[in-house]
Design a protein that fits this description.
Length: 450
């Protein structure tokens, strides 16, 4: 997965000329021969083939390709991985129906549209759905420019939108910034609707973290202190100007999507598949880890501004998140195991840390339910590309990739290729000395439903 990129870095990195350079279209990449070579090597040795996706798909890390840098998001997938599979006809014939059940900010969906496929996704985090929608729906630039003009000309401090109290607004924003953000959001909502409103709200959200007093180096908000806070307050940009810059960059990015591009509406939960809805020819996904990422917490400032949490409770959203960490003591006792999956590991850590053991156990249960829905959604002969690393729980390696592979094998899928890639940029994994830890290798398992 790729490190997150803040809007500041993003602005510095992206020159106007670069944004307007024609996109190196995925149609030009055809990895048929490379896919065959890797598969021959895997069949020969029957063990994961070492690869480096940054070499296979020679695009620099954090490249400003189409809409990928529209908005920061924790633990984004390295775009080289979906790009490779979506351009390999063995798993992605023309006009495939591509689905990502844990789509996050939409990396797979964007690449699917660029490669000329159809795209659909699901995510439990409402901010992820907003970002993914904004990144995958083409809107003519002239419409966005007009809306931007209206939003800016009707931006009048004093008119305000309410902040929903999922976190304390006054703790995270200075009075001036809060008043300006509130007036800006009011103007956006007065002047935009439909896809344009989604686009503008996602641009607004992309500015929020930088305009708060939280540490810009961390994905989860942590308030700056002392000299660092003073320096940050001195460098706080003007809200209106900062937003305008973000919109300008994102309009140029959106121009790089194919004109008819629009991902299907996004679903809420990877565990639910209503049998009647469309099946997928290719599913590419990087699922969450047990206790290793705080997707809802890291989105909390935007969730507050945009009012995305039901009942103004982050907990309500967290409860739908696979891999979550919050459980009451009463719940620990109810641990049971998914058909013996990971039982040795869970038994070892249960005595020393029942909460961590429970987190891992619930994770396996919920991933098992998601695997059911994913397998049912996959069309016959369709492929699933699972991108997953191993993480640490209580200082011990938790073999997530092997456990998830086992779960999908039990659902009747067949492995047709296994790759392993070293990853160096893990900027946003939550680092905890004892309980969670970074993941050094990314396993890519390709299954087929036969
Ligand atoms: C590793 S991230 C995916 C990142 C994504 N590939 C990207 O590039 O932005 C895992 C995602 O799973 C989502 N998630 C957690 N529980 C879920 C559930 N029950 N249904 C759908 N998505 C869920 C999280 O909100 C998070 O966005």
């Amino acid at each position: 997965m790729d490190a997150d990129v803040s809007l500041d870095t993003n602005l510095a990195r992206t020159s106007r000329a670069e944004l307007h350079r024609p996109l190196r279209d995925a149609v030009r990449w055809n990895f048929r021969a490379e896919f065959d070579r890797l598969q021959t090597s895997w069949r020969h040795r029957r063990e994961p083939v070492e690869v480096n996706f940054r070499h296979i798909v020679p695009l620099g890390s954090g490249v400003d390709r189409a809409t990928h840098l529209f908005h920061p998001y924790p633990a984004k997938l390295l775009l080289n991985i979906p790009l490779f599979f979506l351009s390999s006809p063995q798993v992605a014939p023309k006009n495939s129906r591509v689905f990502d059940p844990f789509c996050g900010s939409g990396t797979v969906l964007v690449e699917a549209l660029l490669a000329g496929h159809r795209a659909a996704g699901a995510d439990a985090n409402p901010l992820a759905r907003l970002i993914a929608q904004a990144k995958t729906c083409h809107i003519p630039s002239f419409k966005l420019w007009q809306s931007l003009q209206s939003v800016l000309s009707e931006f009048h401090p004093g008119r305000s939108s309410e902040f929903s109290p999922v976190v304390k607004q006054e703790f995270w924003f200075t009075e001036r910034v809060a008043a300006d953000l509130s007036a800006l959001l009011y103007s956006i909502r007065q002047n935009c609707d439909g896809h344009t409103l989604v686009f503008m709200e996602a641009c607004f959200s992309s500015c929020v973290k930088r305009l708060s007093v939280s540490d810009p180096r961390l994905s989860v908000p942590v308030r700056l202190k002392g000299d660092a806070l003073e320096a940050h307050l001195q460098s706080l940009p003007d809200v209106r100007t900062f937003f305008e810059k973000a919109v300008r960059l994102n309009i140029a990015r959106l121009e790089k999507l194919p004109e008819q591009a629009c991902a299907a509406s996004l679903e809420f939960d990877a565990r639910h598949y209503a049998g009647g809805s469309e099946q997928a020819d290719l599913i590419i996904t990087s699922p969450p880890y047990a206790g290793a990422q705080k997707y809802i917490r890291s989105s909390s400032l935007s969730i507050g501004w945009l009012g995305l949490a039901p009942d103004n409770q982050l907990r309500t959203l967290e409860r739908q998140n696979i891999g979550r960490e919050h459980f009451s003591k009463l719940e620990y006792g109810s641990s049971s195991n998914v058909q013996d999956l990971g039982s040795d590991f869970l038994a070892t850590i249960r005595s020393e840390n029942p909460l961590r053991s429970h987190i891992a156990d619930v994770y396996l249960h919920e991933m098992n339910a998601a695997a059911d829905a994913i397998t049912r959604r996959l069309a016959n002969s369709g492929h699933l590309v699972l991108v997953v690393g191993d993480n640490m729980i209580c200082g011990r390696p938790f073999p997530t990739s092997a456990l998830l592979k086992k779960i999908f094998l039990r659902k009747g899928l067949t492995v047709i290729l296994e790759l392993v890639d070293d990853i160096r940029s893990r900027g946003l994994m939550t680092k905890r000395n004892k309980t969670a830890g970074t993941i050094e290798r990314e396993h890519v398992v390709v299954f087929q439903k036969v």
